[in-house]
Amino acid sequence: MNTEAVNQSQFVTLNGSSAPVLSRLSYVAAEPFAVNIAFRTERGRWVEWTFARELLAQGLSEPAGLGDVRVRPDLANDEDLLILEIESPDGYALVEIEREDVERFLDAAAEVIPLGSESEHFDIDGFIDEITNV
Predict the structure, then answer these.
(1) Which of 26, 95, 96, 106 could share a disulfide with 84, CB 3.0–4.6 Å?
(2) Contact (Cβ atoms closer than 8 angstroms) between residue 106 and residue 112
(3) Which of 58, 48, 46, 40 is nearest to 102 (CA)?
(4) In the β-sheet with 21-28, what is the strand arrangement from edge to edge?
(5) What predicted TM-score, i.e. pTM, was given to this entire model?
(6) 41-59 pLDDT, tens digit each
(7) How far apart are CA 41 and CA 19, in angstroms?
(8) Does the pLDDT of residue 116 top 60, yes or no?
(9) pLDDT tens, 58-67?
């Protein structure tokens, strides 16, 4: 296993669809504060969202997020599910993810960089170079 990254593929329910959608959660050490979730929309095409790892972790126990990405446990219907809501000017998606899959993913990501120690691994100089050399 690459010790700098974590990838986990799974099927999720997207917008109440009766057919699950293939999704992929990713975490890389080079971006220690972020996680990425991608949904396969057709063969070879993925739609991706990047958001705070802390948001995903907090959403396991309570509603989290105020912006385009919100995460919460599904306490009303199924405690084993986590609800991820994604919103943009192009649309809205409600994703149901198995809570156990998210916990396993976050545990693997914490082995790469422990939650709360991200700033020790963040390359601020590289980030400044990236945003000023656009």
Answers:
(1) 95
(2) no
(3) 58
(4) 45-52, 34-42, 21-28, 5-14, 91-98, 81-88, 69-73
(5) 0.81
(6) 878 788 899 999 999 999 9
(7) 12
(8) yes
(9) 999 999 998 8
